[in-house]
Write a structure and sequence with these properties.
The chain is α/β, with parallel strands linked by helices. The chain has helices at residues 4-7, 10-17, 22-31, 54-71, 85-96, 108-117, 174-178, 196-204, 214-227, 238-246, 257-265, 295-306, 308-318, 333-339, 349-354, 356-368, and strands at 44-51, 73-80, 103-107, 140-143, 146-161, 186-189, 231-235, 252-256, 271-273, 279-288, 344-345. The strands form two sheets. Strands 3, 4, 5, 6, 7, 8, 9, 10 and 11 form a nine-stranded mixed β-sheet that branches. A hairpin with a 2-residue loop joins strand 4 (140-143) and strand 5. Helix 4 runs antiparallel to helix 13 (308-318) and helix 9 (214-227) packs parallel to helix 16 (356-368). The longest helix has 18 residues, at 54-71. It starts with a helix and ends with a helix.
Amino acid sequence: MTQKFKTRGAADLTRRSILKGAAGTAALAAGSSLLAMPAIAQARSIKIGSYGGYFEDSFKKFVYPAFTEATGITVESVTQPNSSDWLVTMQQAAASGTVPADVSLYGKDTMIKATRIGDMLKPLDASKIPGVTNLDAEFLYEGPDGLVGVGSMAWFNAMVINPNEVTPVPTSWKEFWENPAFEGSLGISKKIDGRLLDITAKTFFDGAETLMSEDGIVAVLDKVAELKPHVALWWSAESQMEQAMKNEDVIAGSYYLDVANIMASDGFPIKPLFPAEGNPIGYGSWCLSPLSEKTGEAYEFMAFSSDPATQALMSRNIGTAPLVNRELTDLTDEEFAFVSGSPIITPAYESYLDNETFIKERWDAMLAGA
């Protein structure tokens, strides 16, 4: 996952929450197809980790109370970093026999690292997680010992344009390279994980498979280098691209889908698009600590998270994309377009880990013009 949830402002979530707010929580608790409140409340609890700031605050305000009302299980929220640093914390805790969180939220790259380390994630029994079949197989991550991650939510890096300046609307990422109207006018993420490599690989090559070899990586980077004359801003902070679009210093580029929609709803000239090749997707998964004694509670939470009503709740109040079929939810066309779309580009996660130094050195050289 990117750093996007660390940099989101309070105003963003406030605007989004207006869509449904507390009404969404009440509707979920009353109408969830998953679980009913036990007749006799049991003293059950679970510690759940999630990225801090407003992301965690939204879980504490909207998701955890609905889960407790549906199951009687109370949640202790644990702040965890949005990076593999959490693996270090969990390793140290395991060595001392402690459990900072029963369930943690991991990006796919972090799950891959965890399975390579070994004994970091407890295998899960999918048959004990009702509703997990609502999720596409892509969002059920299996390690050497079987299922270890159940998808929770997704987010997108999208193609964006200034609709007042860009006509006709582009239908392919290729136009960023080939259309002279974009010369010196694009805003593109400077970060290696800004997904330009994945976009380029999908648009001009064989997708993630191309990025699995050094020759493929070089070919993709050579193609990225051809885009440089069209890039006015290589942004490293979300606010840089936001301001550049507002000032019309750039007229198109790549940016976060939910933020682009927030800006558009506030009247700024920006429109997110899903071109023919799709937009890169990132997603988080719930994983269980191997030392946790709360396996039953974890199964109930993962089932609750997989429920279409919960998926819709998170989309409305956190701005994440659902991992279940849109038809299973009650999201309106407007609500769904605010957070999701199709087709999707799946990043080459394994390559970024296996070829980290090689990619970084050549990415930096490409940006420097070497």
